[in-house]
């Protein structure tokens, strides 16, 4: 597994991401939507199967590549 820290502008629906805060993994999953005007990301959380709204200003967003 390879990871890249990315800016929200480079995140696309279908990307697999992880959201970290203070060195702890909070969420991971597939991006379903990006609201660029508000700098927000919606994901389908891999752990819970629910949609999550992520704030990149509060979290370190990392793209996961296989």
**What does the average pLDDT come to?**
87
Strand order of the largest sheet: 1-6-2-3-4-5
Order of secondary-structure elements: EEEEEE
Low-confidence stretches: none
Mind summarizing the main beta sheet? Answer: 6 strands, antiparallel
Please give the radius of gyration in angstroms: 11 Å
Tally of separate helices: 0
Please indicate the count of domains.
1
Beta-strand share of residues: over 45%
| CATH fold topology | SH3 type barrels
| CATH architectural grouping | Roll
**CATH class assignment:** Mainly Beta
Structure description:
The protein is mainly beta and 66 residues long. It has a single domain, classed as SH3 type barrels. The protein contains no helices and six strands. It has strands spanning 2-5, 16-21, 24-35, 40-45, 51-54, 60-65. Strands 1-6-2-3-4-5 form a six-stranded antiparallel sheet, with no helix packed on it.
Q: Quick recap of the structure?
A:
With 66 residues, this protein is an all-beta fold. It is 0% helix and 58% strand.
Secondary structure layout plus pairing:
Elements: E1 2-5, E2 16-21, E3 24-35, E4 40-45, E5 51-54, E6 60-65
Antiparallel strand pairs: 1-6, 2-3, 2-6, 3-4, 4-5
Q: Top keywords for this entry?
A:
6 strands; 66 residues; mainly beta; six-stranded antiparallel sheet; SH3 type barrels; globular
